[in-house]
Write a structure and sequence with these properties.
Blueprint: E1 5-6, E2 13-14, E3 17-20, H1 34-38, H2 44-60, E4 65-67, H3 75-85, E5 94-99, E6 101-103, E7 115-117, H4 121-135, E8 141-147, H5 157-170, E9 173-178, H6 183-190, E10 194-195, E11 198-199, E12 203-207, H7 216-224, E13 228-232, H8 250-262, H9 267-276, E14 283-286, H10 291-298, H11 307-313, H12 320-329
Parallel strand pairs: 3-4, 3-14, 4-5, 5-8, 8-9, 9-12, 12-13, 13-14
Antiparallel strand pairs: 1-2, 6-7, 10-11
């Protein structure tokens, strides 16, 4: 069992590793090998059963932060049914979800658009009601999904005021998730949003991994200021695992393999151990879509991360622009 710790100054207790449900709630996702993991069992009944199995395994290993979103297909529904059937009380595990994208793939792996972003007051209002209907009192944290400076969400005064009102009256923490090469700048802007001196945002969820570590300083500063820090895409959507067969990745794979062998761990555990070693990272999400992958991810908690690994792997970082351009090219499968 993992020892729980505070999510910044929010008062919410979380486990060092959490479970992100982006790959569990819909038949198509961009993680490498996602389609092979599902083995054709993409109907709703089988996907709910698989999601429940992974949630069960997460619970048994002490994971106490579950993360969903309105755009993750039926992830909120699957999480809601799991909480009900397992009789998990409110407060038994920390639960976060997100608003801002609409799922539009109609349960298909191939679609013109899998999700459409809309950071408007009307969209928040409708998605807040949908999330409340499913997660109700279990919901601890509600996040803007992939906030960026370009979307205008951080300058919409009516929307921001409504988020603060919900935070104050409904007892839910407010957060934002980040995306794109300007994560640090977006976070810095978000931290300036206050009402009567009270910060709007209690937590931030950001991509930070060996290939894209550019937000580290901004995240550490936010943690020092009391924000909860949640890390997503620690494995770069599978690029930091043995599933990455792209020819340009061979030198990186060789370096990762050498360090994994030296530390007697799997490549995925090594990559997750890097971010778990950061004192400002309160929760690192596993995006596992099978119990086997979750079990492998969990071994990261036992990796004896050291200075040699830090020195060997730090040069793997790409420019944020290159990283996010490659991510955009990943195929839904």
């Amino acid at each position: 069992m993992m020892k729980l710790r505070p999510l910044g100054n929010t008062g919410c207790l979380v486990s060092p590793m959490g479970l992100g449900m982006a790959a569990l709630g819909r038949p198509g996702y961009i993680n490498l090998g996602h389609g092979a993991d599902l083995e054709g069992r993409t109907d709703v009944v089988n996907m709910e059963a698989n999601a429940h199995a992974v949630l069960d395994a997460a619970w048994e290993h002490g994971i106490r932060y579950m993360d969903a979103a309105r755009s993750y297909g039926k992830a909120e529904l699957f999480l809601s049914s799991w909480l009900a059937t397992r009789k998990i009380p409110s407060g038994g595990t920390a639960v976060g979800s997100k608003w801002g994208y609409r799922y539009t793939a109609d349960w298909q792996v191939t679609a013109d658009h899998h999700e459409i972003k809309e950071h408007t007051l009307d969209h928040f209002s409708s998605q807040w009601e949908e999330t409340q209907a499913l997660l109700g009192s279990h919901l601890d944290l509600y996040q803007i999904h992939s906030a960026t400076l370009e979307s205008g969400v951080l300058t919409d005064t009516r929307l921001l005021a409504r988020l603060f009102e919900v935070k104050q009256t409904q007892g839910v923490l407010m957060g934002l998730s980040l995306s794109g090469p300007m994560q640090a700048q977006t976070l810095e802007t978000a931290r300036t949003v206050t009402f009567d001196g009270v910060p709007l945002f209690d937590a931030v969820q950001a991509t930070c991994n060996l290939l894209e570590p550019s937000a580290q300083t901004a995240l550490a500063e936010a943690a020092d200021a009391g924000m909860g820090i949640i890390i997503k895409e620690a494995l770069a959507n599978g690029r930091l695992t043995g599933r990455n067969t792209h020819p340009d990745f061979a030198p990186v794979s060789k370096t990762l393999t050498a360090q994994a062998e030296r530390l007697s761990c799997t490549m995925d555990a090594l990559a997750m151990a890097w971010i778990l070693s950061k004192p400002w990272a309160h929760v690192v999400l596993s995006g596992a879509s099978t119990t086997e992958h979750l079990a492998s991810n969990l071994t990261a908690l036992d990796v004896a991360w050291d200075a040699e690994a830090e020195e060997a792997l730090s040069p793997l970082a790409e420019s944020p622009e290159a990283y996010w351009a490659f991510r955009k090219s990943l195929a839904w499968n």
